[in-house]
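look at this one:
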Amino acid sequence: MAQRLLVYQSLWAMERRIDGEPEYPIQRQLETIRDAGFDGVGVRFVDPSFAREVTGFLRANNMTWQAQCYPRSVAELEPVLALVAELGADHVNLQPDIRPYRLEDCIPFIEGWRRLADRAGVPVHIETHRDRMTTDLFFTLHLLDCFPDLRLTGDISHYLLGREFAWPVSAENHALMHRILDNCWGLHGRVATREQIQVSLNFPQHQGWVDLFMGWWEYAIRSWRRRAGPNAVFTFLCELGPPPYAITGPDGRELYDRWAEALQMKDMIRALWDRIAVEEG
């Protein structure tokens, strides 16, 4: 079996957050995702009853999922891995919810999480994300110096915004991002600018940023295809977040159709994957 791409939709991104209007029931959200042709979703594995409900639907509909968690200690990963042993998951996506000042203080956490993951036989990917251990691009590069084989989930919008890369992005900054992408085993998808964490894919003023991210995602996929085994699976999670990630007008309403853009992003990534597969044979 050849390498495969799975495109997931974020359940967090299904939230609307409209004042005075209730959120759609989880069953409706899942049915909408299924009917739109996504392969699966990202599921919070910090709430066992929620995880069982969602994965039950996904399993019944031949869909898959990634298990998301936000541990603040080594031990907090243990119940997540126990739940993965019960319910399954493509992998665990770990946001390290700690902010050590020194690299040395991170080492026991990374080593502990990796030890638990190896014992459980579950792949664990560390997500690049603001307000986490991986909040800063340079700090995360130092982590990679210490753990060259560390598997990352690349949510690289945070690094573009956090570092406020000038436009056009310099060769030096491209090289720094490529170091991150060379350790990525999956991606979380949104397009950012140097000032905003999430912008529309279709506004004319954003097209240069869209092209930038598509180029980075292409680099990540090509890099992963060289590193991964012949039957490996690469996941891309469409993660267009609700307000305040999504930009709103004076009435509090979003300025563009976020769901329509999630579908557009799904198709863009699948087309990119297919083009790379044809070119690389």
